[in-house]
């Protein structure tokens, strides 16, 4: 058995666009890109996130609010394998062999997606109407310069409001494995299997990834899924709303946002960040090092913070359908073979690297049942239900760009 070494997240970063591993900061160690890269993103979803993310969509989530449907935390896994090699023979094939406690059988297939050329053309229609009102920061009243108002009809003409900070694009994105930056690529979940991650699934134990286009990858995980995040939302005098949540020991930071819409086409978007930071990496899994940087920039709330006040103007603009969401970012584990040499003078040539990230997230109606109530309601009738389908991948880009595209009906 090959000896594995867990690398510390703070010791280095990976620039995978060019398949080059950067040396640890402060050293002159030479490092070459690995043959294979593997990532596991593990999540715990609660509240309406468990309903919508579990395959039921927003209709199922609304059903839960009205007193019906499954109401328990769910787990999600996103597995990605990228390699600089072509398959040794035949079509690409790879599998992730998991511990029995994962509840997914002996393995799940990492399927190489088929590339289907797109011939999407803009669909003519009515000129978009309505506005997006953007707020940010914790506090009973909005800060200076708020709200930023985006008129969709003007945006369709190419007119953006002055001074708009497209922060979803400006927040640094951590390295990702994609088909576009890999010679051969495979992922799960996919259309080849209908397996879902059980609510009692555990990741603890030995993991092995084997395929015909990458070296064997093997490591042992000693960090399991994060606990569910729960909380409450209560309105205070003046119309502001205080959201609060349970402190998770594994959490490295928190980020909250809310979104609502009125019947006249107006929408409101709020984020807990002290600056205009919407979408992008903050909606993804993030390493502890990245979270620390964003805490320093006051984009992410520190792990010691367990409450945030949503301004009254946001709840007023959101109307009766104001949806809240909360992310708790978790730890990260890194593995490599062979391990990085302790002597910086020795060049490092890893065959593979692997990264495991964790998070917990929840969703709730800001002016409806609070998160704690939603999670504490047990529904015995659901015990025999079929497990909900694995969450579908979001193909829309994050940040204001994706939001505006969807709002104006031009896709993501």
Automatic annotation (TrEMBL):
<protein>
    <submittedName>
        <fullName>Uncharacterized protein</fullName>
    </submittedName>
</protein>
<feature type="region of interest" description="Disordered">
    <location>
        <begin position="371"/>
        <end position="399"/>
    </location>
</feature>
<feature type="signal peptide">
    <location>
        <begin position="1"/>
        <end position="23"/>
    </location>
</feature>
<keyword id="KW-0732">Signal</keyword>
């Amino acid at each position: 058995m090959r000896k594995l070494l867990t690398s510390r997240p703070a010791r280095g970063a990976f620039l995978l666009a060019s398949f080059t591993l950067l040396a640890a900061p402060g050293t002159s160690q030479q490092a070459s890109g690995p043959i294979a890269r593997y990532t596991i993103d593990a999540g715990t979803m609660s509240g309406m996130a468990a309903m919508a993310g579990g395959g039921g969509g927003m209709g199922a989530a609304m059903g839960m609010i009205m007193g019906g449907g499954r109401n328990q935390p769910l787990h999600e896994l996103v597995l990605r394998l990228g390699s600089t090699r072509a398959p040794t023979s035949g079509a690409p094939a790879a599998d992730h062999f998991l511990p029995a406690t994962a509840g997914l059988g002996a393995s799940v297939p990492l399927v190489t997606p088929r590339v289907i050329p797109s011939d999407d053309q803009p669909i003519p229609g009515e000129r978009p109407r309505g506005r997006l009102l953007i707020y940010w920061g914790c506090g009973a009243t909005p800060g200076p310069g708020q709200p930023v108002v985006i008129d969709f009809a003007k945006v369709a003409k190419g007119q953006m409001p002055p001074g708009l900070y497209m922060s979803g694009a400006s927040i640094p994105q951590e390295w990702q494995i994609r088909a576009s930056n890999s010679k051969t690529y495979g992922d799960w979940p996919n259309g080849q299997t209908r397996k879902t991650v059980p609510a009692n699934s555990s990741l603890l134990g030995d993991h092995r990834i084997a395929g015909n286009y990458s070296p064997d990858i093997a490591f042992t995980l000693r960090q399991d899924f994060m606990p569910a995040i729960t909380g409450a939302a209560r309105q205070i005098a003046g119309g502001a709303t205080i959201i609060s949540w349970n402190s998770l020991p594994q959490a490295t930071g928190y980020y909250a946002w809310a979104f609502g819409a009125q019947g006249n086409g107006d929408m409101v978007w709020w984020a807990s960040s002290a600056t205009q930071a919407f979408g992008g990496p903050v909606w993804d899994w993030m390493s502890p090092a990245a979270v620390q940087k964003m805490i320093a920039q006051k984009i992410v709330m520190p792990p010691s913070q367990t409450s945030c006040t949503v301004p009254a103007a946001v709840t007023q603009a959101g109307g009766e359908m104001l949806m809240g969401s909360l992310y708790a970012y978790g730890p990260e584990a890194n593995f490599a073979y062979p391990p990085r040499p302790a002597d910086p003078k020795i060049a490092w040539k890893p065959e593979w690297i692997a990264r495991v990230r964790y998070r917990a997230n929840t969703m709730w109606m800001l002016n409806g049942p609070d998160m704690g109530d939603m999670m504490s309601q047990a529904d015995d009738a659901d015990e025999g239900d079929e497990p909900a389908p694995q969450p579908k991948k979001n193909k829309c880009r994050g940040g204001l760009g994706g939001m505006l595209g969807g709002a104006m009906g031009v896709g993501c």
